[in-house]
Every structure is written in C-alpha cells, then in structure tokens.
Amino acid sequence: MSLDVREAIKNGKTVLGIELGSTRIKAVLIGEDNTPIASGSHDWENSHLNNIWTYSLEDIWKGIQDSYQKMAGDVKQRYGMALQTVGAIGFSGMMHGYMVFDEAGNQLVPFRTWRNNITEQASAELSELFNFHIPQRWSIAHLYQAILNQEAHISDIHFLTTLAGYIHWKLTGQKNLGVGEASGVFPIDIHTGSFSEVMIHQFNERIAAKELPWKLEDILPQVLVAGEHAGVLTEEGAKLLDVTGELQAGIPFCPAEGDAGTGMVATNSIAKRTGNVSAGTSVFAMVVLEKELSKAYDEIDLVTTPTGNLVAMAHSNNCSSDLNAWVGLFDEFAKAMGLNVDANKLYGTLYNLALQGDPDGGGLLAYGYLSGEHMTHFEEGRPLFVRSSESNFNLANFMRVHLFTALGALKIGMDILLKQEEVKLDQILGHGGLFKTEGVGQKIMAGALNVPVSVMETAGEGGAWGIALLASYMMNKTENETLEEFLNENVFAGKAGSQVSPDPKDVEGFEVFMKRYKTGLSIERAAVENLK
C-alpha cells in the first residue's frame, strides 16, 4: 500500500467522518486526496417505546464506538498502523428530533426522533405564528408540543439539541451546530446565518404566560457555517470515542451537520439549480433555490445548505421499508424452495422486473406507510396493497407499483416546487439504497420527477463521507475558498457518474399512478382506523 497513505495516517493528515443514519452508523477515514481509505459500520434500529420512536443513549454510544473500532481495525489491517490522531473530525446524524438536558447534563426524556408524528398541534400553531412552515419533526415543534402537553420536564430544560449536536457536545464540550442541521431545529434568517431573532421573540411571547425559567435563546445551540472551527476533542471525549485509549485529544472538529446537508455535499449538489434525493428508510429531496418561494407550504420545508443558502426540502417519512419487507418475503419463499439467493441478485432481479411492467403499474395500488406520513397527513401508518379485479396483477407490475409508491408522497411535495413554483432544476443527484441496483432507481425517479437523475460513482460513500469532506474543507481550504469551489476542484474533478433522462412513457405512467394514489388515500385512512 502507498507509503503516502501511511505517512498521512502517521502525521495526522487524514480526516474522520461519522454519520448516524436510521439503520446504520458509519465511520469513514479519508486521505489527503479526500477519498476513503478505511471504514467501519454498525447496524442498529430504532425502538417504539410508549408510542415514541427512539434510540437509547446506550445504543448511541455502543454504535459509535463499534463503528469507530471497526474503522480503526480496518486501518490496522490495511496499513499495519494504530490510528492515534487525525487532522479533523466531523459528526453527522439524522436531522430534527428532540434531545433535552438539564443543567447537570442529564437527559430529561428519551430521544424523540424525526420519525414521530406527535406534534400536529404545535406544528400548526407555530406555522401560523411565524407564517413559516414548521414540520412536525422539527425540534421546535417537539419543544412546543411538550409545553402544550404540560410535560413535567419543561421547566428543567437547560439545553436543546439534535442527535449530531448531542454527540458533538459530549466529545468537545461545545454547544454548537452547523447551519444546515440548525435549520431543522428552528428557522434560520438567511441574511444573518443564524436563528431568526424575530421568530425567537415571537416564540418567547407565545409562551410567556407559562413563566418558564428560560428564554428560547438560552437553550438553543450556537449556529456555525461550513469551514468554521467548532471545538476540539477533549480528553473525556477521546476516551468516549475510542475505548482502547489510542486516540489522542486535541483534534479539531467541524460543525456537526445533518444527513440532509451531508447528502448535498456527498453528491456535490450545493449550487443553485441543483438538487439531490436521498432514498432509503425515508426519502427526501433537497433543491437549492435561486429565490424564495412565493408562500409557505405545509408540504415543503425551508432549510439551508451547510453554507447557509436557502434549500427547499420535500421529505417523506416512508420509502423503502415496506419494499424491503416484500423482498424479504420473496427471500423466505426462495429458502422454502431450497434456494439460497444472494441478496444483491434478489434485489437486482426483482427491481429489473419492475422495468418490464406496465407504465402505470397495471392499475395496482400500494402504500408503504410503515410509520405516519406528514406529507399526506397520517399520524400512523399501515402498509397496504390493493388491486381491483381489472388490474393487471403480475410480478413486474407488483414490483413497479412498490417502487412507485416509495416515491408517491415525495412527488406530492416536488410537484409543488416544479409545477406550482416553477423552480428550475437542471438535474438531481441520487444516493441511498434505492439506487444500489444499477439504473432502476434512477429510471423510476426520473419518471417520477420528470428531471434527469444522476448517480455519481462516489454516491455509495454516503453521508459519512459527506461530513468527512466538510471536516476536510475546514482543515484544508485556502483563504476565501468557498465550499463549492473546494468540492469542484479537490473532490469531484474528473469523477464519473451516470445520468438517466426521463422517459415520456415513465412520466405519463407515474402521473396516472399518482391520480390513483391520491384517490386511494381514503382506503389507507380506513385501514389505519380499522386496524387500531
């Protein structure tokens, strides 16, 4: 292996990024050329306790430590060296949610993740108060709902943050967030690059009668932009991250970011008129705007890039979970028949069959709502598959309609941007599990959005690579070099990718399916009610 890589590891010229996704925690170490040289991952799942989707603190740290140890083990195996220091570290996590702590640093209630649709009243009241859409999963919606519910812990809150912000705080002692992540906590004033002071004042006035011992600005983290230093690894933090004690303290951190921001970075889609779509357990599209939208929409979130530019975000809580469950059923059938089929072959075969189906899915209908779906106003989900006696029921159409419905709620939001607001989008870059089978996810997505969909050869590196790139930018940028310039010149120059343009038959077929999807929402509502 290259002597240069060994020297970079020895001299602390590498950069570490760790991202906590909904089903996997991944650690990626990158070299001086910003390409991965080692990695490690840990699989985990959320728990549904007392009607709350959550992850315990124990599971959070177990997962971080395991992914770090596997990455460090990869370094030792590949290069014969112990990892003792790096040039910079960045942490990323699932955006939004609710983590609150008292003055002593004790967690007050279990982590409430983005997946919970339990803040409808708060979301509606705050959206009206601010004249700005506040989604149910945002941290401020969770806080206000807890206040409305008169929960006992409210008066003890000393710090409110996100998953990434919590980890960053424990490792550095610093209570700050990157602006992209912060934009899912509370609205950002894009002119100041920080939380909107006007809206903070409005919120404080709204809760004044509660006579709480804090103002909102007292409990929120500081907001930083990409490229700024956000603290260093403390002695306690080093022991918490690396339980073997090899890792040295003093390593600088970049601002913690959310998975939406790292997805933008990992796909080089932070420039205006570009966008990216992340399709996995959930699916969300990020479109960097040239100008503000004409009005607020319940279906569209306004967040920012890690540099503070305005981004329209269409987010669906559900994407591939129900689809994966059906593939798992086919795997069980294969095993019952005495066949052991490789998972990649199974997915590849079934996904490619979908391309042979009727353009509209043969009249079939499905909803993959494993959890609630805010885009279509469901507090609870019930995965559902239905057909009429006239439907063309075959395996190709079955797979096609489940790929379609994985994007159904997303398309409702994207139609607002592309059709109503006439947002210009030159291309969208895809990443996530839906795109692992070559060409299929791209073709379905291009038909759904009627926009060319590209997948970079680096797309599989994901958000852990994205946050590592943000840490590398902080460490290596030249004076006045923008993040966009850094990515274009130092990361993506010469990188290959594939682009799929929308097929008119796919576009028309998806539109026909969407008429059926919207009409059939009443069936899904009945399923939710009848199965309670």
Would you kindly provide a written description of the structure presented here, covering whatever features stand out?
There is one protein chain. The chain has 532 residues and is α/β, with parallel strands linked by helices. It is 39% helix and 17% strand. The chain contains 19 helices and 22 strands. The chain has a seven-stranded mixed beta sheet, with helices on both faces. β16 (301-304) and β17 form a beta hairpin. α3 packs across α4 and α10 packs across α16 (462-476). The chain is globular, with a radius of gyration of 23 Å. It starts with a helix and ends with a helix. The relative contact order is 0.12. The mean pLDDT is 94.
Uncertain runs with pLDDT below 50, 5 residues or more? none
| Oligomeric category | single chain
Strand line-up of the largest beta sheet = 16-17-15-14-20-21-22
Please give the alpha-carbon distance between the first and last residues: 58 Å
Helix content: 25-40%
What would you call the shape?
Answer: globular
Overall mean pLDDT score?
94
Q: Characterize the biggest β-sheet.
A: 7 strands, mixed
